[in-house]
Write a structure and sequence with these properties.
The protein contains 16 helices and ten strands. By secondary structure, the protein is of the alpha+beta class. It has three domains: 55 residues; 224 residues, 3-hydroxy-3-methylglutaryl-coenzyme A Reductase, Chain A, domain 2 (Alpha-Beta Complex), CATH 3.90.770; 88 residues, Hydroxymethylglutaryl-CoA reductase, class I/II, NAD/NADP-binding domain (Alpha-Beta Plaits). Strands 1, 2, 3, 4, 5, 6, 7, 8, 9 and 10 form a ten-stranded mixed β-sheet that branches. Helix 5 crosses helix 15, helix 7 crosses helix 8 and helix 11 packs across helix 15. The longest helix has 26 residues.
Length: 405
């Protein structure tokens, strides 16, 4: 352990920085030295953190800095869930990574209900990842002139954006003004990538073009009109990532058999909880617990977990129809991808392969859209199960029995 002591000594003296270990050591040795240094500095043993199966050569180059190990999240499956989408068709076992007891069991019950009802119909209404640079104009007249230039030169803007990528396509350009601030919301079709890196690079070129041609100063590449990883009405209204809807018709017999309630009560709970309650709270999420399913699948499948913020802006509807109820979920903003980011981490890749959507689709974009459809169907299953538990007054009992809370 002379080498270990030597590196730790250099870290303590400041002659070697934590982030620089990979420049001198193979990734696994660098992680081991860094972990040992942190253990010595904090007095905490990190044996569990240091025990992992993922290959780290790629991870330390693309996914994380100053790595000391890995945090493991229990992974369960719910299903099979029958999905009838345009890109995902068949029965799927949903990988759910969570530490919340009862969640997988609840989604599993919803999957059984949806599957017995014939499956979830799923459709993607819109597909576009956004970035919105902000510019400073001299005055409101200049701001208006800048907007006019943007509106009249969309083709030039498209050429600038698409010159940076062989995959992405600019699909929409929408300007906004607040005083002397001009925001240009750019929307891209990013195929199978979630696409934030792609649209950021493309938006830089667009921003420089607008600055050069209009004289409006490019202040920031992201002006928060995107809106990325924050609750925002613009994402609820215009969408970001995939805008997905999933629905299923349940007959009275199924509702009574599996949910132990009836269609009238189910619709009433949804109206008063998800619609009226959310409106009274001024919530952007009109649902029971969509974020639970989105988060569990995002973690399992290597998605950016911070995008659960957008994924939670789901609207759940329950309509009383002849002989039962029609239940649907609308997810206006679901940013997902099957290439890039965390999708290449070994364990996350396994989960994407479990769903048959790892990597680029043929044609491009089909795998990411299939993943979005599967996630939406999973959210539908989760919503149905929780609404049923609430309608039947079974929620507290499930918490006690399955260890949640």
């Amino acid at each position: 352990m002379v080498i270990m002591d030597d590196y730790i000594g250099r870290l303590r003296s400041g002659s070697l920085k934590l982030y620089a270990l990979e420049k001198e050591l193979p990734p696994r040795d660098a992680v081991r030295v860094r972990r040992a240094y942190i253990e010595g500095e904090t007095g905490v043993t990190l044996d569990a953190v240091g025990s992992f199966t993922i290959g780290i050569d790629r991870v330390v180059r693309r996914n994380i800095e100053n790595m000391i190990g890995a945090v493991q999240v229990p992974l369960g499956v719910a299903g099979p869930l029958r999905v009838k989408g345009e890109y995902a068709t068949g029965s799927y076992y949903l990988p759910l990574a969570t530490t919340e007891g009862a969640l997988v069991a609840s989604v599993n019950r919803g999957c059984a209900l949806v599957t017995r009802a014939g499956g979830a119909d799923v459709r993607i209404l819109r597909d576009g990842m956004t970035r919105a640079p902000v510019f400073a104009a001299r005055d409101i007249v200049h701001a208006h002139e800048t907007v006019t230039w943007v509106e009249e030169h969309e083709e030039e803007i498209r050429e600038a954006a698409e010159s940076t990528t062989s995959h992405g396509r600019l699909s929409d350009v929408v300007p906004f003004v607040a005083g002397t601030s001009v925001f240009v919301r750019l929307e891209f079709d990013t195929k199978d990538a979630m696409g934030m890196n792609m649209v950021t690079i493309a938006s830089q070129h667009v921003g420089e073009l607008i600055e050069r041609e209009t004289g409006a100063r490019l202040v920031a590449l992201s002006g928060n009109m995107c809106t990325d990883k924050k609750p925002a009405a613009i994402n609820l209204v215009r969408g970001r990532g995939k805008t997905v809807v999933a629905g299923v018709k349940l007959d009275d017999g199924l509702i009574g058999d599996l949910l132990k309630t009836d269609a009238e009560t189910l619709a009433s709970v949804n109206e008063r909880k998800n619609l009226v309650g959310s409106a009274r709270a001024a919530s952007f999420g009109f649902n029971a617990h969509a974020a639970n399913v989105v988060a569990a699948m995002f973690i399992a499948c290597g998605q950016d977990a911070a995008h659960v913020v957008e994924g939670s802006t789901c609207i759940t509807t329950v309509e009383r129809v002849d002989g039962g109820a029609y239940v649907a979920v609308t997810l206006p903003s679901l940013p997902v991808g099957t290439v890039g980011g965390g999708t290449g981490v070994d364990t996350q890749r396994d989960c994407l392969e479990l769903l048959g959507v790892y990597g680029g689709g043929d044609p491009p974009g089909t795998h990411a859209r299939a993943l979005a459809e599967i996630v939406a169907a999973g959210v539908l299953a989760g919503e149905l199960s929780l609404l049923g538990a609430l309608a039947a007054q079974h929620l507290a009992r499930a918490h006690r029995q399955l260890g949640r809370g």
